[in-house]
Amino acid sequence: MYPVLLCHQFAPQYCNGPMTRTRRRGSLGSLSSIPSKIFLPRKLSGLSSSSSPNGRRTLFLRVAVLLSVLVTLTVVSVLLSSQDATALLSYLNLSYKDYYGAYSGADPTAGTLWHPHRDAPYNATDSILPNDPLARYYDASNPNVIRKWGCNLTASPLIFVHIGKAGGGSVRARFAASALNYTRGSRGKSWAKVTDGSYYDVMGNRSYFCNSGHSNRRPNIRARTFEGQLLCEATTPIGRAVACPEPTQASASGSGKRCTVPGCDVGSDSCHQVYVGHNAVGSEFHWLPPKVLRRFWDGISMPGTKRHPDDVAYIDRAIHSLDPATKQIWCRSSHRGPAAWRPHTAEEYTSLYNQCSKALAFSVDEKATEVLGKRLPQFYPPTTTGTRSRVQYMASWAPVYASLPVLRTTVVREPFSWLVSKYFWHYRRMFQGTKCSDPDTRWTEVFATEYIMKLCGEDCYTRLEVMEEDIESLAFQAEGNLRYSFAVVGLVNETDTFYDMTSARVSYVNMSRNLDVSGQIHSTSKKGDYDMCQDLFASEEFQKQVMTKHRAVALLVRLFRVAEEVNRFQIQELRECSSGSQGIV
């Protein structure tokens, strides 16, 4: 499964159809009301000789405009010279968070890829405010902060984001084996089943295990995914929740999978589920019960109620319509068009896609951006000159992901060994007849982008493939998710530590149960020149060459370092649990 845009750009031979773009790239903010250049009135001296009243009136108006511009420039100069740029930007309702790449082609491994502008304050005056609900779990004032979660948490659902070729097969089996009354055995898939009587005790409520039972959403369906997939063009998490909901019934075709275990029903006011799958961050917005989503929206939209009451209310009603029990209309194709309710099956979802999903995605994205956009961290994409654009910025939705009442976990792997593993895993289907040492290494860009998308969120697929958003801003959101949205970040070479961390973090999961369960092994074949490729990709000089040629690989290396930092911080935090809590030895 590869982004369509990258598929055509780097590996057209693996694409199944033409690339389509249905929406233009957009931005959440602009300086369109402020001219980048000041143009003086033409032939001003000629107008002064006019004796007509209209000529004198026109001259007067133009001189007045010129004077106002000069006054404005004077004020700007004073504010900037007094180092009070924050006040000016607050007046203009803009952010001064100016990320620019510190990436060096000579040594891309040195330093970091993002730094705040050296001559400007880092804090964004119109970003997340201290009393904002989004600030409860996300500190936009400091790029290096890592969230503290605490121990013995009872939040639910618990989600494991499985990044392929990062040891996820065994980890998923261990999650299943951590249930009470587990009786499935130690080999094979070893998944827990409701029919076996296995469950997790969440403060007296029973939570159940589900493996790869929720389908993905993509803007274009070009390749098979393990969980199946349905179309979705929404570019915000809120838009995806409303416009691309999971069908209420499981699909026989596999394109619209649905976990059928109890505890997270459509009409429920909670979601007790332990879910593991290859889905990207944010897939839960499609399947969380509407009452949970509505309560979440009420919380994060509160500061926007005064400025955008109609937009807040519109989204609230839209989320409310996702509950079939309310019998509220999900959409109409026009003011008096036929009514449609939330789809029951994947087939019904597909038949309503053009009529409902695409229109709802555009509408809800626009309104969610109005309510939340200026309160989110902002990333200014690079221009052709290498500087950061002041005209257009992209928002990171990481605070929204961090605020959702779920517990996410993941295990990451060092990028270059992971790339080799991915290469040989897909060798027969994609790379037969080639060598990993070939000069053409564009395939590393494809896989690195796939890795970043998993951490960035489901909305990022649309933002990359349809809106053609820069990969740097998506990596920016992925970093925010690593720092704030994952309760546990593990390393593939330290899975036992990951199990201990998860047991300490989540009260109803004990990963030390049924230690004989190891899961189904589907490791990459190490035949042929596998060892040679691992040695090559472990070479520092070769890594520099690849990172210099492929920006996504350099960004992925940066994200892995962040993941390592988060992992070490979380280990230390869990060791410092109170005496009454379970901690890591």
Can you offer a commentary on this structure?
- This protein has 585 residues and is an alpha/beta fold.
- The chain has 21 helices and 14 strands.
- It has helices spanning 4-10, 44-48, 53-81, 85-92, 168-177, 237-243, 284-287, 290-300, 309-320, 346-351, 353-372, 398-403, 415-425, 427-431, 442-456, 459-465, 471-484, 495-505, 530-537, 540-549, 551-575, and strands spanning 100-101, 114-115, 158-161, 200-202, 205-211, 216-218, 229-231, 273-277, 331-332, 339-340, 378-379, 394-395, 407-412, 488-491.
- Strands 4-5-8-3-13-14 form a 6-stranded mixed sheet.
- A hairpin with a 2-residue loop joins β4 and β5 (205-211).
- α15 (442-456) packs parallel to α21 (551-575) and α20 (540-549) packs across α21 (551-575).
- The protein is globular.
- The two termini are 40 Å apart.
- Mean pLDDT is 77; it is low at 1-51 and 75-127.
